[in-house]
From TrEMBL:
Gene3D superfamilies: Chemotaxis receptor methyltransferase CheR, N-terminal domain, Vaccinia Virus protein VP39. It holds the Pfam family CheR_N. Keywords: Methyltransferase, S-adenosyl-L-methionine, Transferase. Residues 15-287 form the CheR-type methyltransferase domain. Methylation of the membrane-bound methyl-accepting chemotaxis proteins (MCP) to form gamma-glutamyl methyl ester residues in MCP. Its EC number is 2.1.1.80. Transmembrane segments: none annotated. SUPFAM superfamilies: Chemotaxis receptor methyltransferase CheR, N-terminal domain (SSF47757), S-adenosyl-L-methionine-dependent methyltransferases (SSF53335). It comes from Propionivibrio dicarboxylicus. SMART domains: MeTrc. This is Chemotaxis protein methyltransferase. S-adenosyl-L-methionine binds at N91, T93, R97, E130, D155, N213, L214, R231, N232. GO terms for molecular function: protein-glutamate O-methyltransferase activity. It catalyses: L-glutamyl-[protein] + S-adenosyl-L-methionine = [protein]-L-glutamate 5-O-methyl ester + S-adenosyl-L-homocysteine.
Length: 289
């Protein structure tokens, strides 16, 4: 899923220079709306950031005030809701980010490779680097592209999913991938002055990209999941929301399935659901098996 933007907005000392009036009440309405819709907890310090991101939406929709813009959302404009959420989220990602997780995944895959079908869910696909890293690990661990593995990659942000599905990356996004992997999994194209890389079709076909909001009541993803990547997502939810999502994850997990979290995340408050294996990897708590 998308991470909150940390880019600089207008400073609070520069409020007189703002194009639109943005009151504390407006900010509180935004906080409530994004929390209710996506479960994201906006810190009180994010007021300037929120203004700078949403001011663009006011310009594009032709609204003169935040009151008018938020009323548009409250009337249920589905397309604008999507753009509202996309504006308040970003996607800090890279290929093989938090690299210690991928050898663990590879070992796990080799242990279960006799299964008729292996299922993996990447629940915060962003622009695709994470699910493609998972797919590369699958190919390397199991010896080829034609293996009985299903990879589902989801995200709240539709714009980044479109990028992920294309599988096209500038050279600086793949500069930490080894030459061997680049040769095996990508083709070089002169997309820009500096060139670019395209994910090979056989790797791209291993992944299904689809929008999913973790706060929605119904998920299309089905278990049993042998691996679930939910990295650098939970830090933007409060503890009750985290526990609610983890409670829904648990029944989807295979008995020995692994849950991968981000380096700054801890699920120890959900010890009734998941057991820590170290290195921000979890499996089901014994009583949930």
């Amino acid at each position: 899923m998308a991470e909150l933007r940390s880019g600089l907005g207008f400073s609070s000392t520069g409020m007189g220079d703002r194009e639109f009036v943005f009151t504390a009440a407006d900010f509180e309405r935004v906080r409530k709306m994004i929390y209710d819709h996506a479960g994201i907890s906006l810190a009180a310090t994010k007021q300037d950031m929120v203004y700078s991101r949403l001011a663009r939406r006011l310009r594009e929709t032709g609204k003169r005030t935040f009151t008018e813009y938020l009323a548009l959302l409250e009337r249920g404009d589905r397309l604008e809701w999507e753009k509202f959420v996309n504006s308040l989220t970003t996607n800090l990602t890279s290929f093989f980010r938090e690299p210690h997780h991928f050898p663990i995944l590879a070992d796990h895959l080799r242990k279960i490779q006799g299964k008729q079908s292996i299922k993996i869910w990447c629940s915060a696909a962003s622009t695709g680097e994470e699910p493609y890293s998972i797919a590369m690990t699958v190919v390397e661990a199991l010896g080829g592209f034609n293996v009985p593995v299903t990879i589902v990659a989801t995200d709240l942000d539709t714009s980044v999913l479109a990028t992920a599905a294309k599988g096209v990356y500038p050279a600086d996004r793949v500069d930490k991938i080894s030459p061997e992997r680049l040769n095996r999994f990508f083709t070089r194209e002169a997309l820009t002055a500096g060139g670019g890389y395209v994910v090979k079709p056989e790797l791209r076909r291993m992944i299904t990209f689809q929008r999913l909001n973790l706060l929605e009541p119904n998920w299309f993803v089905r278990g049993p999941l042998d691996a679930l990547f939910c990295r650098n997502v939970m830090i933007y939810f409060d503890k009750p929301t985290q526990h609610k999502i983890l409670t829904r994850f648990a029944p989807l997990m295979a008995e020995n399935g692994l849950l991968f979290a981000g380096h700054s995340e801890s699920f120890l408050h959900a010890a009734d659901l998941f057991r820590s294996l170290g290195k921000t990897v979890y499996d089901l708590a014994p009583k949930k098996r």
